[in-house]
Amino acid sequence: MMTAARAADSGLAGQGELDRYPFAEAAPADRVGVPAWEGADPELGRVGRRAAGSRGRGLHGQLVQQLGQMIVSGDLGADRPLVPEEIGQRFEVSRTVVRESLRVLEAKGLVSARPNVGTRVRPVSDWNLLDPDIIEWRAFGPQRDDQRRELSELRWTIEPLAARLAAGHGREDVQQRLSDMVEIMGHAMGQGDALTFSRADTEFHSLLIQIAGNRMLEHLSGIVSAALQVSGGPVTGCDRPNEATLVHHGRIVDALAAGDGAAAEEAMRQLLTVHPEVERVVPAPREH
After folding, report:
1. Contacts by 90-96 with C-beta closer than 8 Å and gap 24+?
2. DSSP 8-state assignment for residue 283
3. At what angle do helices 144-166 and 132-139 cross, to 10 degrees?
4. Triad 219, 256, 37: Cα angle to 5°
5. For 282, which of 156, 169, 202, 204 could close a Cys bridge (C-beta 3.0–4.6 Å)?
6. What's the pLDDT tens digit per position in 38-68?
7. All structural domains of the chain
8. Vertex 153, ends 151 and 155: CA angle to 5°?
9. CB distance 158 to 210 below 8 Å
């Protein structure tokens, strides 16, 4: 188990600081009496799985997670290099683990490694802000408000268009899966099961983007999944479920089945503006 070493004047946070980020492991939800998660076409979930990020597992994944959080929160700045030997000693991991972790962070645009300069934190303008891991880290850091607003704006751009394009283009099995997700959400809401609701909602939105028939939009589906999965994400009808939330999801499914792109787009806009906070972030289009 990786632990933080003794406090030192290295610029790295201590263990207590690192533990303040609440990334809890989710337990499987009970699904008795509702459509099951198991047995679905594996391809139907491939988009949503992209939101898992690329930080890996084990010690390597833990180190990427902790260093990434510290960089995004500003605990590690560009004022001094990140010394691999120092990181290895502080977190009690091997040089190989440190090296591979820094490579992952470099691929995300968080750090850069140059001869005679060392590894340093890069400015925010260089970060891959569409990376699901960075979305997650920003959601728990001092940039949480900016992350909230930016994700809301991005979803307003992506999802109504995806709903319009998806109308009439979905396979029957995908249409059925979308209906199943609405049923699961309804059951979960009645049981007060926020985890199951969130999982079904994430799959719903990922599948909808997948069947839009636009590969560039499909590539962005991981952003929507990440937005729905992180705490402190955009305030929409998906974040605070109620009966109106289910109604709008159901209307989207009906519009898709009927091939009515305009109705699907409008239902999605209604879903994303269930709460007045969103309307102040991204005003609804004016009526002409």
Report:
1. 90/4, 90/5, 90/8, 90/10, 90/12, 91/2, 91/3, 91/4, 91/5, 91/63, 91/66, 92/2, 92/3, 92/5, 93/2, 93/59, 93/63
2. P
3. 140
4. 65
5. 156
6. 433 434 333 333 334 555 568 888 999 999 9
7. 59-127 (1.10.10.10), 133-274 (1.20.120.530)
8. 65
9. no
